Amino acid sequence: MRIFLSCALLLAGLFSSTATHAQTQLGQPTLDEQKTQIWCATMKFVYGDTGRPNLQSTLRCGGSLKEFENSIKADSQKVYSMLYQPLEARGTMYKGLGSDKSRLQKLATEIINKLKASPARRKDAARMQGVQALEAQLKGYVENGTPPTDVATAVASDDQTDVIDTTATDEAVAGPAETGLGSQQIASAAPRAAGGESLMSKFFAPLALIMSLLSLFLYVMLRRSINDLGSRADRHRNELESVKASANGMPARPVAAAKGLTPELQRDIEKLVQQRVAEELGKRQQGSGQPQGQNQGKQNQPRPQGTQQSTPPRQAAPAAAAPSSQPQPQPQPRPQPVAAPPAPASVPAPVAAPESFQEAMPQPPVQPAGSPASTPRDEFESLIPPVQLPGTNWSEATAPAVPTPQPTPPAPSRYYVKVPVNGGFSDYDLQEQPQHDSIYEITPDPRVPERATFRVTANSGVHAYAIQSAQYSLRDACAYQQPNGPVSRIVTDKDGTLIKSNGAWQIEQKAAIHFE
Predict the structure, then answer these.
(1) Residues annotated as region Disordered (predicted)?
(2) What CA–CA distances, in Å, run from 154 to 53, 54, 123, 329, 414?
């Protein structure tokens, strides 16, 4: 099993290294994403330049290049048929260009040439300044990766609807002799370029699916191995605890055994001891009457005179003096001397112990001669050793145990998220640990749980990605000035504020940032 897992992991590593070599590096946008940003900035300029800024909201700048192309096919301002289709859709201008940067430079140059070729725009100095500003934006994006922003343009007049004059450079109008390409070559140039780009995706899409399935299988096997190891560890732990419990239960170590008992078990043992002691005491009280009657019968029997004379004098003076101190009734004639009550002197006195034992052992208290519990108590105590009951408060010991409240885990003090969505951050996108693409850090207010602050993360590894994709990662959440040169780091000048509403953190005030 371990050999199979090792081979599978090695194979997965080889495939992943091959796949990642052909993909775009982390934090770098793809060629289609960069084209989308250039075309998006261009179309926004054209819509603003022609007096139709309301059409800017229809652009799909955050998606793929194909989605952006579908958003401008309505062609109300002829931007698709006269600008986008001759340059991008046919793709003849990319022929012979190998690197992505050279293609982007070619695209920006052709777009600016198309816009400057319009006669209506050349007559208006303000509109030409807008074209020059757009040219600077596109050049900065291609050279430094600085995301383009909206260019302030003048509102065109009503008769300037067809402002994109491409008669001078329109390759669609020019014939095959002027362009140097036949009709078949023009039709097949774009499919060859698109086929070269989609070949890698066609090859690596099934490979990525296979890798994901293999990773899922390895994850399941790894979880099963972890569960098996956990069960084995629990079994070994239980065996060790049983061995320790058996060792602690030996008679030679009662203290260790008592420590292993739970409070409930200790209370049960104490109750059982109480019951046994009460039973023994009840038996002792029941059996105390019969020995007393037997002793009285023996005392009432007449003894021979020789026996009475041979009996040595015993230490019964205190016992005899006690009944004599009471008022004696008047003597009455007794017909028979046998019926006379037994004299106190007939009570057997305890035998005197040797002096050595008398010094070592304390003398028991002298009881009256007629005490009914004297003889059974002495016999019971001689057979059963005294039981020392623990000094326990039974009202507290038998009381139900109050469950200890478990402390609630503290709420996370910081969250991490990638980009805002619809003017806020959803709770489903928040992460307690920073990810490789986390751009923002959210800090909830401990005093007001419905409010929080956010800022751009200090991890400079994701700053390049955030700068290049600023249209949908920085623009909705941050306020900043467009940089004039190359930048590589984002510094937060003032934290933004958030408010909790409908399961999401809505942006109340944007964060102030600048680029370095």
Answers:
(1) 280-411
(2) 11, 15, 13, 143, 45
